[in-house]
Amino acid sequence: MLLATLIVLITKYGYFIVFLFTLLEGETVVALAGFVAYQGYLKIGYVIAIAIIGGVIGDQSFFYFGRYKGKQFLARRPKLLRRAERLHGLVERHQNWLIFGSRFMYGFRTIIPIVIGTSNVKPSRFFLLNVAGAIVWGIFFAVGGYAFGGALERFIGHFHRAERYVIFGMILGALIVQGIVILRRQLGEKLNDESEETSPRGDHESIK
């Protein structure tokens, strides 16, 4: 039901919905927008461009929030603070990769830019890597949704637009959500394991 609602919203409000959701995460919306573009309601080039812009603005906002308010924000949230302290070690070791790939990591999309904002990473470096990551992210999900629509059409055959709209939406949505959950969970678990390895022994004891 939620996926059907998202498809209706994307079809009705178009690029505004894509932009709004990509400010936070929005992988599912970007992929569904790619599918809607295949249906002819949107243009795939515009979907990609808006997804990139929204993704960049969202992470830049979190970065600058971390730069000016992050320490106070984390200090009032002990669980997030412990998580952030472990991430600081990874920021020092894998700074570029974390900035570039944070939007692909399950459970870290928001916290990583905030933590990086509290570090000594230069805003110019963050911006360039953030843009590069957003470009890959936007193209991957938008084109994925678009290509999946074509593949599914060839598999099922030619139906009336209104009929395949519902069928494609349900199948596409289920597969996309399942794939995103599996991929981001694996990335998140890997990052969690690595952050545990880099955390001081005292930090582990305090968590216990």
Summarize the structure.
With 208 residues, this protein is an all-alpha fold. It contains ten helices and no strands.
Structure report:
- With 208 residues, the protein is mostly helical.
- It has one domain (2-207).
- It has helices at 2-13, 15-22, 27-38, 44-75, 78-93, 95-101, 111-118, 123-156, 161-198, 201-207.
- α3 (27-38) runs antiparallel to α9 (161-198), α4 packs across α7 (111-118) and α5 crosses α7 (111-118).
- The longest helix is centred in the last third of the chain and has 38 residues, at 161-198.
- The radius of gyration is 19 Å and the shape is elongated.
- 35% of the residues are buried.
Q: What percentage of residues falls in helices of 4 or more residues? A: over 70%
Low-confidence stretches: 159-163, 199-208
Largest sheet, strands/sense/barrel: none
Residue-averaged pLDDT, rounded?
78
Overall geometric form: elongated
Number of domains: 1
Beta-strand residue fraction: under 5%
Instruction: Please give the count of helices.
Output: 10
Straight-line N-to-C gap: 41 Å
Computed CA radius of gyration, to the nearest angstrom: 19 Å
Number of strand segments: 0
Order of helices and strands: HHHHHHHHHH
Structural class: mainly alpha
Task: List strands and helices in order, with pairings.
Elements: H1 2-13, H2 15-22, H3 27-38, H4 44-75, H5 78-93, H6 95-101, H7 111-118, H8 123-156, H9 161-198, H10 201-207
Helix pairs in contact: 1-3, 2-3, 2-4, 3-4, 3-8, 3-9, 4-7, 4-8, 5-7, 5-9, 6-8, 8-9
